[in-house]
């Protein structure tokens, strides 16, 4: 099995380069995920930098670009990939080392949309009730694991990560603007009414195609734009 991995150590290398590994597939489980292969390669070369945690598709920390597609290495069956397998860090982010990228701007943009419920002052004697229909509206909006696969697939985010909020952040923004318990919808929409923060999205669908949880950020952003326009 031929595997090409992007290597880059900022203290030693001028730019990233590809390193080739030849792996005996019999050393891996027949139903192995891609992450198992990467960890096997790290045993061969302990200097390989890779980020991972839960290994169950929940934490989102092991997102990579593999054969040109952003995905989670821990939920991608190895047998589903064509050889040679080319493994690169998520595009559009500064590389810290090898397959590890700096997601600082991604998290800043997520924080900027205030992704938390803003409701009436807490009253321990009073629940924040929702009807089943109101709760159902949140489906497909709250399951994001912040893996950054979507934003790393988005040309608008590549070009303006400091200005465009990105698919993950705007998906979260939509989730809270439609939550019946939130009392700041008008203020939220006003803050999002920006040609760069929100309307820079061109709906080319890369974000939706790359989401490992099957979410549809593009649709959520379109709905968000419609609400902003109608608000005026």
TrEMBL record:
Top-level taxon in the UniProt lineage: Bacteria
Record-linked PROSITE patterns: 4FE4S_FER_1, 4FE4S_FER_2
Alphabetical keyword list: 2Fe-2S, 3Fe-4S, 4Fe-4S, Iron, Iron-sulfur, Metal-binding, Oxidoreductase, Tricarboxylic acid cycle
Top-level EC class: oxidoreductase
Domain 4Fe-4S ferredoxin-type: 134-164
Listed cofactors: [4Fe-4S] cluster; [2Fe-2S] cluster; [3Fe-4S] cluster
Protein's recorded name: succinate dehydrogenase
Organism per entry: Thiomicrorhabdus heinhorstiae
């Amino acid at each position: 099995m031929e595997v090409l991995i992007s290597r880059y150590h900022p203290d030693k290398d001028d730019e990233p380069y590809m390193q080739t590994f030849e792996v005996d597939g019999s050393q891996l489980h027949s139903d192995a995920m891609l992450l198992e292969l990467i960890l096997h390669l790290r045993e061969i070369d302990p200097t390989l930098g890779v980020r991972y945690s839960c290994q169950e598709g929940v934490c989102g920390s092991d997102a990579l670009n593999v054969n040109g597609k952003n995905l989670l290495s821990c939920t991608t069956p190895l047998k589903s990939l064509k050889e040679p397998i080319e493994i690169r860090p998520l595009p559009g982010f500064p590389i810290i080392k090898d397959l590890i990228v700096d997601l600082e701007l991604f998290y800043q943009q997520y924080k900027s949309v205030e992704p938390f419920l803003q409701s009436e002052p807490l009253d321990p004697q009073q629940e924040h009730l929702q009807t089943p229909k109101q709760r159902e509206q949140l489906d497909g909006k709250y399951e994001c694991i912040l893996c950054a696969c979507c934003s790393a697939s988005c040309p608008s985010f590549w070009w303006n990560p400091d200005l465009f909020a990105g698919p993950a952040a705007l998906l979260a923004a939509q989730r809270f603007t439609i939550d019946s318990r939130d009392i700041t919808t008008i203020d939220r929409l006003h803050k999002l009414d920006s040609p760069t923060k929100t309307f820079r999205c061109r709906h080319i669908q890369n974000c939706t195609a790359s989401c490992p949880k099957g979410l549809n950020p593009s649709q959520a952003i379109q709905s968000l734009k419609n609400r902003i326009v109608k608000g005026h």
